[in-house]
From TrEMBL:
Keywords: Amino-acid biosynthesis, Aromatic amino acid biosynthesis, Isomerase
GO terms of biological process kind: amino acid biosynthetic process; aromatic amino acid family biosynthetic process; chorismate metabolic process; prephenate(2-) biosynthetic process
Taxonomic path: Eukaryota, Viridiplantae, Streptophyta, Embryophyta, Tracheophyta
Top enzyme category: isomerase
Source species: Arachis duranensis
Name of the protein in its database record: Chorismate mutase
SUPFAM superfamilies (alphabetical): Chorismate mutase II (SSF48600)
Amino acid sequence: MGMVKAEELSLESVKGKVYTLDSVREALIRQEDTIVFGLIERAKFLMNSRTYGREEIPGFAGSLAEFVVKNTEAVQAKVGRYNNPEENPFFPENLPPSLVPSYSFTQFLHPKAASININKSIWKIYFDELLPSFVASGDDGNYAQTAASDLSLLQAISRRIHYGKFVAEVKFRESAQQYESLIRAEDKEGLMKLLTFESVEETVRKRVEKKAMVFGQNVTLNNGDDKNVTYKVDPSVAANFYKNWIIPLTKDVQVEYLLHRLD
Ligand SMILES: C=C(O[C@@H]1C=C(C(=O)O)C=C[C@H]1O)C(=O)O
């Protein structure tokens, strides 16, 4: 019971990952969990502005957060994180090569996908818009822990948004003719319209709000009365972050990817 048969394992690794509209949507749903937990973990610390100010680290021009992200990305690059086409670094400049034998990831995307990286915008939105919307002001001295939780949340958000490349490829393959004429006409608005599913977006927003309620509620044994439930992160903040930033940026990545799909 619970054992994976050897032949199933080898078959899986030969076939590689299969991307369909259902499977990419499943992946996005699972990533919601990671993002919601990431918000909860970051909310454990106060704003800790010194994490984001310059000149905290002698000889380093950026912030403490930048220092942690750059150096962690370098370590993770050495062990192959960015061999996976689902991962995009925040500081791709001067990343060291991987030292480990590379896994053969399914070649599903058009080669141009590798040049799409909107992490500079994600970085700015994260610090300017997201953090102030849910983190309590003040300083508790946990700068390293704060930067570590920023890093994992930033990586989760970036992975979700860049997953748009896979969503777009699946949609393109399902309706190649329709997409091709819009791509040839460089019709960004037409592409945006064709790839948009309003009802799916609404479901995503509602589910994210519910996840923030379920995962983030302060649990006690004696409050049978739901009115007393409090949350670690305001569920509407999570839903609005999805509505205003994550979903639109995922769609921007899709449009960007499609524009180069026939290159
Ligand atoms: C990701 C998709 O594409 C669009 C973006 C969505 C999102 O970011 O959640 C949801 C629906 C679509 O408008 C999708 O169709 O699943």
